[in-house]
Design a protein that fits this description.
The chain is built from two helices and twelve strands; from the N terminus they run H-H-E-E-E-E-E-E-E-E-E-E-E-E. About 10% of the residues lie in helices and about 40% in strands. Strand 6 and strand 7 form a beta hairpin. By secondary structure, it is mainly β. The strands form four sheets. Strands 4, 6, 7, 9 and 11 form a five-stranded antiparallel β-sheet that branches. It has two domains: about 60 residues, no CATH class; about 120 residues, Sandwich (Jelly Rolls).
């Protein structure tokens, strides 16, 4: 706790040094908050996290569903780094774990480890074999001369109609490569899900 010199306790006006010391002590003061009970679970749509926004000097809240607390990411190594990227359906597959059950795909990107040349982009589709549906209406692309889709001229578009982008535990997800750049090597796909 900060030590302050009070005029009422001193019985006379404060000196400049006493006032400066008070301000310095207040500047270093740490406030203690109550210890809150720990909850066993958090509802991702109705509970919220409160924080102080120093930019606007206001209290704000975040729905956990919109935070990293409820996001789950799968990183799939589809083709080893030193193997030429090739086309085909079912380049690799994965089975959806319980941690992703009933979550929706909301972000997807891909990466190659040797940049390709020519005129053809690396083009990747995500297919849910269990539902028999392509998950992307616009596939992931990696532009010629680049290694990652985050800088692609045309970003991927996730098909969010109905439950096309929703997964259930046990679903089989398949990576299809529809086109490749000359000389491209390796392939990794990153998929992020939330409720």
């Amino acid at each position: 706790m900060a030590t302050l010199t009070l005029r009422s306790a001193k019985g006379s006006p404060l000196t400049f040094n006493e006032m400066d010391d008070n301000l310095t002590n207040l500047n270093t003061k740490q406030e203690l908050i109550d210890t809150y009970a720990t909850g066993a679970s958090m509802d991702r749509t109705t509970d919220f996290i409160v924080y102080w926004d120093t930019g606007t000097s206001t209290t704000k809240k975040i729905s956990p569903n919109d935070s990293v607390f409820f996001q789950r990411t799968i990183v799939m190594k589809c083709i080893p780094d030193d193997i030429p990227t090739y086309t085909g359906d079912g380049i690799t597959r994965t089975v959806v774990p319980n941690a992703l059950n009933l979550l929706n795909l909301f972000a997807i990107n891909a990466h190659i480890f040797t940049v390709g040349s020519g005129v053809t982009k690396v083009t990747v589709q995500l297919h849910n074999e269990t539902s028999g549906l392509d998950v992307l209406t616009t596939p992931v692309t990696i532009d010629v001369g680049e290694s990652d889709s985050i800088t692609a001229a045309v970003p991927p578009v996730i098909n969010s109609s109905g439950t096309t982008n929703r997964v259930s535990e046990g679903d089989v997800l398949r990576i299809d490569v529809d086109a490749v750049s000359t000389g491209a090597k390796g392939l990794e796909v990153r998929m992020t899900y939330k409720g």
